[in-house]
């Protein structure tokens, strides 16, 4: 499936299409100026600093006309994992020890026995966002299938909410006239 995004700089009315990982937006003269995003296809992650460092912002298919922390984005990457049938196992202790709970949908951990208790996880399928507070609040971290998380780092014993990223809808395109992109855009400048 093709995926693209367009980012938009409101002050200059300039949009830019991205189709692949961009570790440093300074290299394409688009650093710290993204104010809105449009994603077609798979989700994208935008980062506060170059090389996927700092605060993370997650965008699934659709438009976001006002990016939180706008004009601070310095790198971005597409989520390429298969996001269908997501599954994650959360563990109470580091190195996959202690009690565990397996999830396959967005879950509020606040009212159960796992609120602020997670120290490691295994992502069987998909890509998941773990949040510090309920309702997708507070700081967050992205965890993905195929990577090891024996210690979830700074968010250890602080997770209250978990959600899988959703796959984009498949699209059939005429590749002679159109190709896939990551779109970050649409403010309409007059």
Automatic annotation (TrEMBL):
SUPFAM superfamilies (alphabetical): gamma-Crystallin-like
Taxonomic path: Eukaryota, Metazoa, Chordata, Craniata, Vertebrata
Occurrences of domain Beta/gamma crystallin 'Greek key' (ranges): 86-125, 126-166
InterPro entries attached to this UniProt entry: Beta/Gamma-Crystallin (IPR050252), Beta/gamma_crystallin (IPR001064), G_crystallin-like (IPR011024)
A GO molecular-function descriptor: structural constituent of eye lens
BP term (GO), one: lens development in camera-type eye
UniProt KW keywords: Repeat
Keyword Repeat: yes
The family this protein is said to belong to: Belongs to the beta/gamma-crystallin family.
Ranges in a coiled coil: none
Name the UniProt record assigns to this protein: Beta/gamma crystallin 'Greek key' domain-containing protein
